Amino acid sequence: MRQKIMETSIHLFDEKGFAETSIQDIVDSVGVTKGTFYYYFKSKQELLRDIHLGYIEYLLKNQEEILKDDTKSCKEKLRETIFLLIHNIQQRRKSARIFFREMRNLGPEYLEQNMEKRDLFRKNCQMIVEVGIRKGEFKDDLNPDMITRGILGVTNWSYYWFNPSGEISEEGLTDIYLDMILNGINKMDR
Fold first, then answer.
1. Are residues 4 and 80 in the same domain?
2. How distant, in Å, are the alpha carbons of 61, 64, 132, 155, 190 from that of 75?
3. Do the domain assignments include residue 13?
4. What is 74-115 written as a DSSP string?
5. Are residues 66 and 153 in the same domain?
């Protein structure tokens, strides 16, 4: 029942917004009482926190697998990280939008946990860039922090517009982003 409440809430928060969705809306959609809701969650804030944590912990778990693979270059790890985020759109688009859009609705006691995990994901991405610089895979005059924020900004915004069933596949968009990140859009004189 807890998972059903979360899934229903994800749909409602995505459709109506967190602030506009009441606990009554949630329990009516699930077909349970408010007592059932409060058995699983102390508040709507706690529910939102758990939705956020479920999303970012999923990403961190998968990112950890990418980072642990010592057979892959930093370019390959960067590509896999970008693909992780793009591929995730098919299954978790609503959760991603809620993660980015509704974070402002988390109280300080819940926001801190989410920010720590979000920052860990970013720092792990930055580590790929930094190691790539040290190994000579990437230019040595880069600002790893700004590059990482740019990569994540471009990739994360895809949750709002990318259609995995459209004309560009997940693999295709990943390759477009990776090429743009690694090579830019400047025409090279030959």
1. no
2. 20, 16, 7, 16, 24
3. yes
4. HHHHHHHHHHHHHHHHHHHHHHHHHHHHSGGGS-HHHHHHHH
5. yes
DSSP 8-class letter at 189: P
Domain membership flag for residue 188? no
Residue-wise pLDDT for 32-87, tens only, equals 999 999 999 999 999 999 999 999 999 999 999 999 999 999 999 999 999 999 98
Residues belonging to the chain: 190
Q: Model pTM?
A: 0.86
Give, in order, the Cα–Cα distances in Å from 137 to each of 38, 62, 175: 52, 23, 17
> Smallest Cα–Cα separation from 142: which of 181, 174, 104?
181
143 domain-assigned: yes
Q: Which residue has the tokens 């969705």?
A: 21
Domain-located, residue 133: yes
**102 & 157 share domain:** yes
Q: pLDDT tens for residues 151-177? A: 999 998 888 888 888 999 999 999 999
